[in-house]
Each structure stands twice: as C-alpha cells, then as structure tokens.
Description:
This protein is an alpha/beta fold. The protein folds into two domains: 2-255 and 475-497, Rossmann fold (3-Layer(aba) Sandwich), CATH 3.40.50; 279-469, 3-Layer(aba) Sandwich (Rossmann fold), CATH 3.40.50.2000. It is 39% helix and 19% strand. It has helices spanning 18-32, 108-126, 142-156, 177-182, 187-190, 207-214, 223-231, 239-244, 279-292, 314-326, 340-352, 367-376, 392-398, 409-414, 438-454, 456-468, 474-488, 494-497; strands at 2-6, 36-42, 53-66, 69-80, 83-90, 132-136, 160-165, 173-174, 205-206, 217-220, 249-251, 301-305, 330-334, 359-362, 379-382, 402-406, 431-433. The chain has a nine-stranded mixed beta sheet with strand order 3-4-5-2-1-6-7-10-11, with helices on both faces. It is elongated and about 70 Å long.
Amino acid sequence: MDIVMAASECAPIAKVGGLADVVHGLSGELMAQDHRVEIILPKYDCMHYDRIDDLSTEMEDLWVPWCDGAVHCSVMAGRVDGRRCLFLDSHSDDAYFNRGGFYGYRDEPYRWAFFCKAVLQYLLDSGRRPDVLHAHDWQCALLPVLLYEIYAGAGLKDLRVCLTVHNFMHQGSADGEILRATGLHRPDHFYDQERMGDQMNRSWLNFLKGGIVYSNFTVTVSPRHAWEVRHTDQGFGLGHLLHIHQGRFGGILNGIEYDAWNPATDPHLAANYDRDSLDGKYANKAALRERFLLRDGFKPIIAYVGRLDSQKGIHLIRHALAHGLAHGAQFVLLGSSPDPDINARFWDLKRQVNDNEDCHLELTFDEPLARLIYAGADMIVVPSVFEPCGLTQMIALRYGTAPVVRSVGGLADTVVDWDYSDRPQEERNGFVFHSSDTQGLESALNRAIGLWNHFPKGFRWMIENGMARDLSWRQPARHYADIYDYIRVKSPPDGGTAP
C-alpha cells in the first residue's frame, strides 16, 4: 500500500513527546512490511537538520489558497533514518513554522489549519495519489474535513483518511474566521453539532471533532483507552460523538522500536544484557548507585522517569518516594515539568532529600541517563491519572524492570498483575492498582518490595516474563495495515457527504 503520514512531529528531527516516536516507529515498521510510506511535516527552523540526509527541493512553487488569496510555499525532501520525509515551507509573512519552537503560539489553530491545507494542495498539484492519508492528532484533524469538503471534488476523491488521536485532552478550536481562511465557508454547516460545533463553547469550532466526523476511521493508542474515551470523562466531551461513530473507531496499542530500545546493544549502559544473561542488569544497578551517590546494600531501587505534570499523578509520585524510603527501598527520579508550580514543588522536595543516601532527584531530562535508570532500577512507578498508551512501562519491561502502574489506558493493556490476574503466571509481569488514592499505590508497592525481598526467584521470573513479551511495532503495524485495507473499499463517512 501507498501511505502518506501527516504529523507535527517525527523523531529524531522534531520531537516534543511520544507522538514523534510513534510516527518514527510506525512508519519504519510499515516500510519493513513492504508498504510505501512518506511522512509530511512542517519545515521548522528548529529541526535537527543534521539528522536529515540528502535534503533537496521537491517543489519550488506550491500556491496554497488561504484567506482571500494564496500563500507561496515550497517543499523539501530528505531521508530520516531511511524514511522519506517531505517538509512544507511557508514563505508568508506569518512565518508559521519559523519561530524557534514547535508549539505554544497564539495563532496555533491557524498554523495547523494552514498546514492541513498545504498538505492536500501538495498532493493535488504534485500528482501524488496515495491509498491512505494517515493524520495524527488535532493538528492534522482538519485534513479529512478539507479533503471531503473541498479536495475530493478537485481530484482527490479516492483518498482515504485514518486519524490517530494520541491524547483527547488536546482538541484544537477556533472561531468562525477559520472557515474563511481555509475556504470552507458555510458557518451554518460547520457549526452544526453533528460536524464541528464545539459542545462546550458554541462559538467555537472543534478541530478534533471534525476529524472524527469526517475521517474514514479513527484510532486511539490502546484498546483500553478506546473504551475509556467513550464511557468515562477521558473523552473530554467527545464520548457521545465517539459512541455515534463507534463503527469506525478503535484502539491499537502503540509499540516501541526494539532496535532502539535494546539492553543487549544499548551503548549507554554499564553492561549489556538480555533475558538469558540477566546478571548484566546488576552491573547497571551498581553504576546507577555510583552515578547518584546512593549507598550500596541489599535494597531494591524504585524509579520514576518522565514528565512531571498532573496527568502523571504528581501526588502519587511523591507518595511513592516517601513510601518506598519508609519500607526499605531506594528511590530515583528523572523528570521535569513545564508547570512552574510543579517544578518548584519538586525542587523543594529535592532539597529535603538532598542528604539522603537512598534517594536522588534529577530534575531535567537526559535520555542516556534515562536508559541507565531503566536498566539499573528494579521497579518503576507509573501512577498516571490517565494514560492513553504510555511508553515508560513498555521500555521498563524491555529492560527487565518491573512496572508498578495504575490500571488505566495502555498501562492496563501491557502490565499484568503478578498476584491477582486471572492470566497464566508466565504472562504476569508487574503490579497493578486501580484507584488514584495512596492506599492502592501502597498496596502495589508493598507487594513489589515484598516479592523482591522474600522471593527473589519469583521476582526474576516475573521480569523475565516482561522481557519475553513482544511490545514492538510489528503487530500494531499489521493492525494499522488492516484498517488501511478496510477503509480503501469503504465510501466516505457521512460528514463528507452531508449537504
């Protein structure tokens, strides 16, 4: 199949979060399974151009209809880790993608509406006719709207769209002026609650809502999260819409790139190891203690690695630290927060534990150090309030570190409780708790520390189970290919043909 992916990020050249890793990992696996894949991104001025090979001009003159005129653009092409990438460059005075950063600007909806329009104009003018256009998150959610309302009639009628929603909390919205800018016009049509009318604020249009209504299939990033967004508040107001369109909505668990995350070859580790040579893991534990000046002794190390924000369960992270130290464990944390208040609280906590030889907080992000923590820790806590998929627990399993997780989203789909699951013992790989209070976390941590202390052979068996599970992109890519096949023979969704 011929697939074009449109996204705002792709590792390693333009990365803010997990979206970049997904675009990179999924595209690579689809190529490995003999599909043709191109990735279309904005040409940011802040990309890592040193990671792009053979950058050259693909199209010098692309005129994108916008407002009451047209914006001159050009398209560059290059290769990123073997993936063919196209970069849309706007030459307008608005400098939509030449601002020194990826996100966070007041005209954010207009930046991404323009990008969506430019993607489709490029496909139309270049003669590229892929089978499927795969759009990612709200930034690209206007693609199916623009396709079926404008570009299908202009020559792209056979193109089908798969939309992946990585986080329903971020939906994108704008007032009716966006309709004039994009050429959609007809406010009565688009403000309809069955199309793009925002349920929470009737004066706004909701990009993500439009994407769900108009796309041929919408995917979120784990089966459990697909249930949660329809039946709990994790849909952030879109649950009813997803229920209406549930016949073309589902969840596919993300994967991780096994070549990139491999303790047997990872150059950042003190010693390499695999499931059959686990003793190498303990050399990394010693190296981690030396790096953070932790005391040596017969104690498990509990870790937290990741962003520090309210989604991640800040109160439970802090409680895990206190409870672990009170129950004979050591605790290390690597992470930072974009929220000044959260950041200040963790700096205060760091000062409080500064002289504790069983604890260290590193309030930054450093990927080589993260890898050493994954390899050197015995357990990792992921107590998220919500977690559409989560990569932390997958990497921890790959590195033989037992996850202690709250049963939400992709955490519930990947971690099988050692004590209470009804799954076979050889599939159990961590510890799970359900409520977001401290009692549930304490129970799971107590069971993890107890197993480590009193049944080390069982603990080793458990982490071997985790290392044996296939959480690569191989199976998810096959599921996506099945969806692509499915939508190729389906007619446009109701939203695209409504009068």
